[in-house]
Amino acid sequence: MPKVAQYYFKTAIVFLIIGICMGLQMSIGGNHNVIGAHAHVNLLGWVTMALFGSYLAIAPAKAEGRLAMIQYYVYTAGVVIITPSLYFMLLGNEALEPLVAIGSLISFAGVLLFAYMIFSGETSASRREAAAGS
Ligand code: HEM
Ligand code: HEM
C-alpha cells in the first residue's frame, strides 16, 4: 500500500476514536450539544480520509510524487483545525468561529486537490504498469 494511503488510514482511525469519544460524551451526558463536531470529525475525519486512503490504495499511481503527500497534509491540517475549534465553539466559545471557517476552507482546498488528482491523467508509472501487464 502506498505510504500516503497508510498515513490516511492511521490518521482516519485517530479521528474515529476522537469522534466516538464525542458521541459517547453526548450519549452518557445526555446533552447533544457537540453533535456537529461529532458528525464532522467522523465524516471528514474517519469516513472521507478512509475513502481517500482506499482510492490511493487501489490507484497507487495517483499516490506517486509530491502532490498526493501535499494533498494529505493540506486536507489533514484542515480537519485538525476544525476538530477542536468546532468542538469548543459548540460548547459556547463563539470566538473560535473564524478558526472553524479557516479549517473548513483548508479542508475544502484539500478536497479540490484530490479532485484534481482524480481527474489528472495517467502517470508514466501507470503507463509502464499497463504496458507490462499487456
Ligand atoms: C459508539 C459510537 C457513537 C456514538 C455513541 C454516537 C452517538 C451519537 C449521538 C448521541 C448523536 C446525537 C443524536 C441526536 O441528537 O439526534 C449522534 C449523531 C450523529 N452521529 Fe454518532 N455516534 C457514534 C458513532 C458515529 C460514527 C462512527 C459516525 C459516522 C461515521 C457517526 C455519525 C453521526 C452523525 C452524522 C450524527 C448526526 C445525525 C443527525 O444530524 O441527526 N456517529 N451520534
Ligand atoms: C468543510 C466542509 C463542511 C462544512 C463547512 C460543513 C458544514 C455544515 C453545516 C454548517 C451544517 C449544519 C450544522 C447545524 O445545523 O448545526 C452541517 C451539517 C451536516 N453535515 Fe456538513 N459540512 C462539511 C462537510 C461535510 C461532509 C464531508 C459530510 C459527509 C461526508 C457532512 C455531513 C453533514 C451531516 C450529516 C450534517 C447534519 C448533522 C449535523 O447537524 O451536524 N458535512 N454541515
Gist of the model:
It is built from five helices and no strands. The protein has about 130 residues and is an all-alpha fold. It is elongated, with a radius of gyration of 17 Å.
The H/E string reads: HHHHH
- Average pLDDT, rounded to a whole number, is 94
Global structural class: mainly alpha
List the domain count as a whole number. 1
Counted by DSSP, the helix tally is: 5
Main sheet attributes: strand count, strand direction, barrel closure: none
Radius of gyration: 17 Å
Q: What's the quaternary structure here?
A: single chain
**Contiguous uncertain segments of 5+ residues:** none
Number of strands: 0
Q: What ligands can be seen in this structure?
A: protoporphyrin IX containing FE
Strand content: under 5%
The outline comes out as: elongated
Query: How far do the termini sit from each other?
Result: 23 Å
Helix content: over 70%
What does this protein look like?
This protein has 134 residues and is mainly α. It has one domain (3-124). 82% of the residues lie in helices and 0% in strands. The chain has helices spanning 3-29, 35-58, 65-90, 97-119, 124-133. α1 (3-29) runs parallel beside α3 (65-90). The radius of gyration is 17 Å and the shape is elongated. The chain starts with a helix and ends with a helix. The model has no long low-confidence stretch (mean pLDDT 94). The structure holds protoporphyrin IX containing FE (2 copies). Residues 35-36, 39-40, 43-44, 47-48, 104, 107-108 line the site of one protoporphyrin IX containing FE.
